[in-house]
Amino acid sequence: MDKKDIYMIQGTDYKQMTLELLRACGLAEAIGDRHKKVGVKPNLVAARPASSGATTHPEIVDGVLTYLQEEGFENLRVLEGSWVGDSTAEAVRVSGILDVCRKHQVEFIDLQKDRSVPCKAAGMEISVCQKALEVEYLINLPVIKGHCQTAVTCALKNSKGLLPASEKRRFHSMGLHRPIAHLNTVIHQDLIVADNICGDLDFEEGGNPVTMNRILVFADPVLCDSFAARAMGYEPRDIAYIRIAEELGVGSTDLEHAVIHDLRPDRKQEAMLAPKGRAAALAGYVDAKDACSACYGSLIYALDRLDEEGLLRGKKRRSIAIGQGWQGESGKTGIGRCTRCFEKNLPGCPPSAAEIAAFLREEWR
Ligand code: SF4
């Protein structure tokens, strides 16, 4: 798999989707030696289930461990340290990931109990948990979701779970962006399996999940976070830690030259969680008929960006059409190729939140 590659799959059979992705990207060949110490790092920020939009789905961890064991890898561990104030032991239990580890007889390492080692990180000293540094091939399983301080969180910020509590506190006192970028000069993420199933609209602790039903694989964490930023309606270089990480040589924001391998290009409408909280309020502007979840979710993220800019004020409810049920019908404003007969239409299948936000901004100007 090349750094420019993005493997993508859509659906609701999350374990099977993970297996298909890992087979397609040739993970076993990339790791090589079956005795290598392989670390799997989910996002267990707090003791919340994945359906809240905060944590990695256990089906993804199950898919990764199943694949690795089928391919003969024996030296596996799952490792994580939750945020300060929450217990990792509780978070791994509540998430269902502890049961997955037990099923596969793979050790779960609670990094809140680990020692740390000071490391040089491109001109900054950062202490990192020792067990994380011992890993020889790191598979990161972040959730694509919003964050109250950094707007977006995904692969680069998920590395913060490999720090001791004192260092996590120091990162917050430093404003997060710069230390996160520097940390990723020490932590090498070999593969990223990004959980884009139902990440939170704007808060890392969950509560406003936005259904997207998508899983993606990247070899470059900066490209991964650039994709996540666009998927949530931002330009990658507007997110400071993504920009700084690129400047430090961690990876590239160049989505224009990325090569997307869409493993299930036939779009199907899948079951979605009912929008909650702020996501439910934004859904009031949408007239959906059989919309695919990635299309619908992208529109919700785009409306959130436009709401922040004050552009939703005075807009009519149910004024934006989306979904396969609109094919062949006419109307005023429609999103995605299914509404191509509408007066104003944004093509794409699905378009990203950044594209939708730019289109509606232009329409409403
Ligand atoms: S454009 Fe239509 S088929 Fe494509 S993702 Fe959107 S709703 Fe689905």
How is this structure best described in words?
With 365 residues, this protein is an alpha/beta fold. It has 2 domains: 5-262, LarA, N-terminal domain (Rossmann fold); 277-359, no CATH class. Helix content is 34%, strand content 19%. It has helices spanning 14-25, 27-31, 58-70, 88-95, 97-104, 130-134, 155-158, 165-173, 177-183, 221-231, 240-247, 277-283, 293-308, 353-364, and strands spanning 5-10, 38-42, 76-80, 107-110, 116-120, 125-129, 137-141, 145-147, 151-153, 191-196, 214-218, 259-262, 286-288, 320-322, 333-335, 344-346. A hairpin with a 4-residue loop joins strand 5 and strand 6. Helix 1 packs across helix 3, helix 3 (58-70) packs parallel to helix 5 and helix 13 packs across helix 14. The mean pLDDT is 95. The structure holds iron/sulfur cluster (SF4). The site of iron/sulfur cluster has 12 residues, from helix 13.
